[in-house]
Amino acid sequence: MDKKTTQLHKYHLSQEAKFIDFGDWSMPFSYEGTLKEHDIVRTSSGFFDVSHMGRLEIQYSEIKKISKLICSEIIDIPSNKALYSIFTNADGNALDDVIFWKFDDKIILIPNASNLEKIKSHLVAHNVEFIDRSPDTVLIAVQGPDTIELIQDRFEIPDKFSTNFTESFLYARTGYTGEDGVEIMANNEDAESLLTFLTEKGVKPCGLGSRDTLRLEASLPLYGFELTEDITPVEASLNWTITNKNEYLGSNRINDQLSGESHKVLKKFTINSRKIARTETVGIAGDTKGLVTSGNFSPVLNKSIGFILFENMPSHDLIEFDIRGNLVEGNIVNKRFLS
Amino acid sequence: MSDIKYLETHEWYLMKDDEITVGISDFAQNELGDIVYVTLPEVGQEFEKGAAVVEVEATKTVADAYAPMDCTITAVNSQLETEPETINNDPCGDGWMFKAKVSTVDDSGMSYQEYETFVS
Predict the structure, then answer these.
(1) A213·B85 Cβ contact <8 A
(2) Is the entire prediction scored with pTM above 0.80?
(3) How many structural domains does chain A have?
């Protein structure tokens, strides 16, 4: 089957992007190289076409129904806020991690590309009405310390984790890189002028390769790796997202785990030798076995880093990895990779 | 360039008398993406044809470079330990990985044109 491409595919071809298959999609992997793009986002400003992700428009009046499906408080936060949360199933496991953009009259829900159809079915099953705006819009993430200064003459910049809009765009000061920036949703007919604006400002195109090294270095999970339908937000060490005080799908199990029931534990690690512990590498801490969910090189730390899911809370901070037959030592990291 | 030969596993080698210089092809470095760690063999280590000699860790994946023929390592490009990106920038020049004394000559690698056809 032919892979899907975003509405900006012609632009990516014109920039001679390298492509990678990502689920059903063929997406830009890099333009000038992953490490260069990583550096651009850490030091200036880069943009990512993330139009493969979903955009569901929901009337504000549906908010109470949504609140019964996610682990975070969504009703009582101000109407111009963005919210990161997790749709849980009846077992409290993660169906998807998503972003909500709240506006006065509506909510934009941004699911992961691979979970869009699942989340749509889930909403239908729970009588939440929505319009799928994904086909007629694009989503561009503009990220990096210079982003705000570069785009503020065209975009009125909201506070961090807040939303705003113009006639053509809905946007929020959110992202997936650990840097300041905005994510902008534009109608297809406005996409080209947005790209022109960004490139004229010197914002450089970046691909999924650097998006992955940036999110990992920023200690952020990726659905399909850290998050699956076999892990709860508690197990994924995302307790900070569990702010929904009311009953929601799977809240009983999540509350049991919060009250001390034994459960799996996702941890971060660094490795001091020149090896990368990639997905599914076995790591043992004391008597506790774990499997790496993501591992890669951190350009800022100049170190090999990753996430590992342990069967239960490990009693040791030292991890012994079996990397392609070699015994390699690493350490559990309890702080964020980048301060 | 014309003396360089290529293997189906994407190494190149240049044979001069009984010594070979070995690296990975431009196609291979392009497929791997940014190379971040290179683990080189030690001088004096012996390898059989097809054995993994160099481990290359890139942001996208990990790969081995294999011995093109039975050989003993005579030199390694230690610059790659601090500047692994040299392989991305100049895979068939400054990005060479090791030199080795050949014990069993097997000069069956592909020519540049044959390799280009192989990877296209």
Answers:
(1) no
(2) yes
(3) 3
